Amino acid sequence: MSSLLNRRRSGLIACLLMLFANSAQAQKFCVFDVLGVQGPFYGTMLEYSTIARKWGVQLELKPYTNEEKAVEDFNAGVCDVMSTTGIRAREFNLFASSIEAIGGVGNDAQMKSIIETISRPEAAKLMAQDGYEVAGVLPIGAVYLFLNDRAINSVEKIKGKKIAVLAHDIVQLRLAERLGFQALAADIDDFALKFNQGTADMLPAPAIAYMPLELFKGVGNKGLVLKMPISYLSLQVVARADKFPANFGQKSRTYFASLFDSLLKPTKNAEQEILYFFPAPDGEYDNYQALLRDARVSMTKEGIYDSKMMILLKKVRCKNEPKRIECSDGKE
């Protein structure tokens, strides 16, 4: 009898040890930050990994300065979760990545409202797709149009101008096509170089790229940065749902949504560093908005953007600016 009890006790201990070993096993986290371990987003993910321990999840961070490599490793199963821009997150969740739609978000307050909305439990189903779950959306900041000549000061005058775009981003390529630009496809290494050296007349980029990529060289003394968001970039945390506890994604989204104001500080500081940061000329703002809207509507019809996200974006824009033409014409 005692030998039977000993065998059962030994079996129970072995099972407990296996369970402990499994719970202690770290999940690999591919973290993209152009500045690597010194970057602000890597620092944010370090703090996040500390919080995740309280949820029973241990994250082992693996830094990447090359976003394409981070996504490749995630697809290859090297990592269980990754952080990547909304551009690269399209293949994992069209709804969440469509937050970056052309002209979809007009200011920081709108972006905050949208992130808070999609981070609520009621939106959880929309954040999951094909075995992947978006476990957080972080603001990177508005994308502005960098121009090398202030004489390009109207919708008509920007048509036909050369614009540097990322070759892997179908949205930028379609935008150039819809708006009548000459697209110069580039990779991340020569994206800014084409503008700085004068090969491209224009460049879409967030404010935080201004100093690191030396975009002031392309703007020079004759250019400007158009103070009107043409889209809003995000960093998205994408996880393999089956690698994490059922409630992990929701806890994670709630956590990141609470950080919005603090995460935006580097962006606001970067905007202060832009020397020639001017709004659209009188009478041109509505023309620019109409152009962006036409491109957004067209790309939604093509399936490039998620229609549910477009409804949400419009609702937030119109709540923030109820006098916008789009709020009453029913076109979108």
- Please give the largest β-sheet: 8 strands, mixed
Just give the CATH class: Alpha Beta
Uncertain spans: 10-24
How much β-strand is present in the residues? 15-25%
Mean pLDDT score: 89
List the domain count as a whole number: 1
Question: What's the name of the CATH homologous superfamily?
Answer: Bacterial extracellular solute-binding protein, family 7
Instruction: Please give the count of helices.
Output: 16
Q: What's the shape?
A: globular
What oligomeric state is this? single chain
Rg over CA atoms, rounded to whole Å, is 23 Å
Order of helices and strands: HEHEHEHHHEEHEHEHEHEHHHEHHH
As a percent range, the share of helical residues equals 40-55%
Structural category is alpha/beta
N-to-C CA distance: 76 Å
| CATH topology title | D-Maltodextrin-Binding Protein, domain 2
What's the number of extended β-strand segments?
A: 10
Return the CATH architecture: 3-Layer(aba) Sandwich
Characterization of the model:
With 332 residues, the protein is of the alpha/beta class. It has one domain: D-Maltodextrin-Binding Protein, domain 2 (3-Layer(aba) Sandwich), CATH 3.40.190.170. It is built from 16 helices and 10 strands. The strands form 2 sheets. Strands 1, 2, 3, 4, 5, 8, 9 and 10 form an 8-stranded mixed beta sheet that branches. The chain has a two-stranded parallel ribbon with strand order 6-7. A hairpin with a 2-residue loop joins β4 and β5. α6 packs across α15 and α8 packs across α14. The radius of gyration is 23 Å and the shape is globular.
